[in-house]
């Protein structure tokens, strides 16, 4: 998976031959096909592995209202740092699957946001629906920034935009 991420980053496209990924990983093409089925699944799993290894530990280390800004900045920094991979994959045939999978990864953080904003005042279904709505909406906001944003992404400025959006949604001060 690391070889796939490296090649997509270097080439700026998801159109990387499986043979090139296999060679870079020092494994056979057959093994990659047996493990993942096709290139799109391999690239999807490589991007999710990157998010799980690099981003989720940062999100898990933060809690409490004061940490909302740290979580937001961690997401923006991760996406900006790995923009080449995400931009390539979000404009490839695996874009829909990647978007859904990343939204599922962000869902626990958004559940935390909803709990921190509303406590126990919402019923469980409404709380879950709001967290899913936030994951999809913020996911689209983030993915549009990664794909269509300026050539150099400013993670701190974008995190501030996300904080202002969150503050407007939850009627709180931006942190």
Structure description:
This protein is mostly helical. The model has no long low-confidence stretch (mean pLDDT 90). The N and C termini lie far apart (36 Å). The radius of gyration is 17 Å and the shape is elongated. Helix 1 (2-11) crosses helix 6. It has helices at 2-11, 18-25, 29-36, 39-60, 68-81, 83-90, 95-118, 124-148, 155-170.
N-to-C order of helices and strands: HHHHHHHHH
Distance between the termini: 36 Å
**Over the alpha carbons, how many angstroms does the gyration radius reach?**
17 Å
Tell me the fraction of residues in β-strands, as a range: under 5%
SS-derived structural category: mainly alpha
- Most strands sheet: none
The share of residues in helices is over 70%
Mean pLDDT: 90
Number of helices: 9
**Poorly predicted sequence stretches spanning 5 or more consecutive residues:** none
Using the alpha-carbon principal axes, give the shape: elongated
Quantity of strands, as a count: 0
Summarize the structure.
The protein is mostly helical. It contains 9 helices and no strands.
Give the key terms.
175 residues, mainly alpha, 77% helix
Helix/strand layout:
Blueprint: H1 2-11, H2 18-25, H3 29-36, H4 39-60, H5 68-81, H6 83-90, H7 95-118, H8 124-148, H9 155-170
